[in-house]
Amino acid sequence: MRRSAVVAALKELQDNSSDHTRESPRQLATGGGYGILQEQKPFKSPLLKKRGPDASLRKRARVNYSELSGDSVDQSGIYIDEIEGPRKKKSLEGVYKGIDASGVSFNADRRKWQVFHADPRAIKRKFSIPSIRNERGEVIESQLSHAALGVRRPVEVPPRPLHDPMSEHSIVLFDPTIDDKDIESEREKLRLAFEEQQKKEEKRGPHKNLATILGINKPHMPIRDKVPVVIDPRLGKILRPHQIEGVKFLFRCTTGMVSENAHGCIMADEMGLGKTLQCITLLWTLLKQSPNAGKSTIQKAIVVCPSSLVRNWANELVKWLGASAPGSLALDGRLSREQMFESVQRWADCSGRAIVHPVMIVSYETLRNLQELLGNTEIGLLLCDEGHRLKNADSMTFQSLAMLKVKRRVILSGTPIQNDLSEYFALINFAIPDMLGNRNEFRKHFELDILRGRDAGATEKEKEVGREKLQQLSGMVSPFIIRRTNDILSKYLPVKYEHVVFCRLSPFQVDLYNLFLRSPVIARLLRGIGSQPLKAIGILKKLCNHPDLLNLPADLEGSEELYPEGYRPGDRRNVAVGLSGKLAVLERFLTSMRAKTDDKIVLISNYTQTLDLFERLCRSRRWGFFRLDGTMNINKRQNLVDRFNNPEGSEFIFLLSSKAGGCGLNLIGANRLVLFDPDWNPASDQQALARVWRDGQKKSCTYALVFFFANKV
After folding, report:
1. pLDDT tens per residue, range 250-289
2. CATH code of the domain covering residue 658
3. Residue 548, helix vs strand vs coil
4. SS3 of 15, please?
5. I want to staple 357 with a disulfide (CB 3.0 to 4.6 A). Which of 116, 291, 327, 437 is the partner?
6. Which domain, by its residues, includes 296?
7. Distances (CA, A) of 292 to 60, 180, 229, 377, 493
8. Is 408 found in the same domain as 308?
9. Are the beta carbons of 357 and 303 closer than 8 angstroms?
10. What are the E-state strand segments in 3-97?
């Protein structure tokens, strides 16, 4: 039926073309149609190019799709479905496109395609890479690269140190030819680490990564040659011999070169030997270098110090390292509490290249409050300036710092041992945990025997045992402690003179002193009834400084009868210099110094009331002065110190509280110092006296005066 319709259409097309050939061009033009004036060739269909009008079309082979659907068709063109019954035959126009009449594609699995079977006699060769042979016919083996085609192989750069170890001012801290450990032991460690990693992967279960499934295991990183670690030449030029020795000691201890299980130490140099500069050199070296080329030893570090030294540490970093100094986050009280916590949180979260401020400088009190934020942060190095604050293992400061996740710990203190061995153990145990065991083990194995051997009534055997235990303890901790005295500075600093000045009490002080000794309070103390001896000593110390420091007449009953003419206790406007022997000597000394020299002086006292007395004296004499005590804001302290150290400043007196600024402050602007009232702890006095005579002092002579009373408190 379809073929007959096509034949009829072709015949009609042929008849129309013959009629057009019989019409003239004029008729085409006048017949109202569109035509041309010249004759036109008759149109011939491409299908009938070589055929006559009666030529029969080529017959196609009949295709039967009944096998695909499972239906049958009769001669009338009606499909017979076994389930639905007879229905009309569907059109097959979409068969050649793979779509049936309902618009559904044929299912590929229902087509019957001829399956190709390979000839079993065909020989299959496994692909192999063509080999290259040399002149002797030997195969040249070459290791294949796992990189994709078109990817350039990275250039193998030989490892090089950051600074040239052969330069003029080079100071080598690590030399691989001398200090490097046996390479076989390192390979053994890598093998054990690899086995441990395999055990962990087996515990994970059957799930494996694609590389393991395909058998493409990453090759182990080869043990690369180590490079020297060299101090930055900018620092190497200014370090003195004892400081170079100190930096080497710090580096060897913190990198485990002394002991693999110990990464801490104590630098106990006396005040003024440059502990800050040595620690800055260590910090800068660990942040920039390591024996493995291109890698640093640490990423972050914390410097914890007294609050008055926070800004000083930040200034020292810039002073010695210049513009390339590592960024420091100095928490000196300038930020609000919310801003501080936000800054510390960002510092704790960042890592790698995101670290902007690798060094945090913070006070002991502030760090104690930040322990929760820093508890899970990996800290490479912890520097504890004036670390004798950690002498009490039960204090909150000690416990907070001990909970930080830090591997390398360095304690800086000019006076590490102040009272007993328990404080010494606390410092050692903080720097190198568990090296001496716990507190009870240390007391059992060392402390008790040493104390028995030093007792006045000890036997010869106990003394011998005590010496042996002391020698054993010293042998264990001496590799991790370094201490040098101020005698080294005699080569580099001006001459220092120390004088002890004995003063007389004023008549008013003598009367009050004797009155107190005859008081019922002292009588009860002598009979062993009283329980406040320290209070009585405190009253006498204040009396020796000046009677105005006492709360008269409450502190001394009956003292009203001893008042000199015109004396009014509690007068805060004027100061009676003649009522104190020490203050009278100090006033004459300051007047003479101001008249004859342009020197500056530091006045140190343990009491803020005494500083109030000095302040009234300076105001009455119109002397320029600065004052630093515990009431001053932290962020203002360093500015005060810088102004005093400026030689162009007019203020020549610095009033200093020994508790707030007796440790770590650098007051080299002055070359004279007066310790007005000594402390109970001699170590505190030593710290205070070292504020002037230290690195950077340029004055030719330095005086340290200590005021005492003969046979008095």
Report:
1. 999 999 999 888 999 999 998 888 899 999 999 999 999 9
2. 3.40.50.300
3. helix
4. helix
5. 327
6. 244-433+481-486
7. 81, 11, 9, 24, 40
8. yes
9. no
10. 72-73, 78-81, 85-88
